[in-house]
Amino acid sequence: MSEVFRLDTAHTSYWFRVTGQGHLEHLYYGPTLPARQDPDALAVKRTAPIGTSTNYPGADPVYALDNMCLEWSGAGRGDYRETPIETDTATDFRYTGHEYAPAAPDGLPRPHGASQSLRVELADDAVGAALTLHYDVFYDADVIARHAVLSATGGPIQVAKLLSAMVDLPGGDWTLTTLNGAWVKEAHRQALPIGYGIQVNSSTTGSSSNRHNPGVMLAEPGATEEHGRVYGCNLVYSGNHYTAVERSGQDLIRVACGINPAGFGWTLAPGESLATPTVVLTFSDSGYGGASAHFHDFANDHIVPAYWARRPRPVVYNNWEATFFSFDAGKLLKLAKQAKALGAELFVLDDGWFGKRDDDTKGLGDYTVNPRKFPNGLGHFAAQVRKAGLDFGIWVEPEMANPDSDLYRAHPDWAITAPRREPTLGRNQLVLDLTRAEVRDYIVANVGAVIDETGAAYVKWDYNRNLADTDAPGFQHRYLLGLYDVLGRIFGPRPQVLLESCSSGGNRFDLGMLCYGPQIWASDDTDPVERLEIQGGLSLFYPQSTMGAHVSEAPHQQTLRDTPLTTRFNVAAFGDLGYELDLRMLSPVQRKEIKEQLAFYKEHRATFQYGRFRRVDTGMGAKPNKAVWTVSAPGEVIVGVFQTLATAAEGLDRLVVPGMDPATEYRLRTREQSVFLSRFGELIKHIGIRLNPEGMAMTAVNKVYRLTDAVEDYRVFGAALGNGVPLANQFMGTGYNDRVRMLGDFGSNLYLITPTAQTGSTS
Question: Is-catalytic flag, 524?
Answer without folding.
Answer: yes
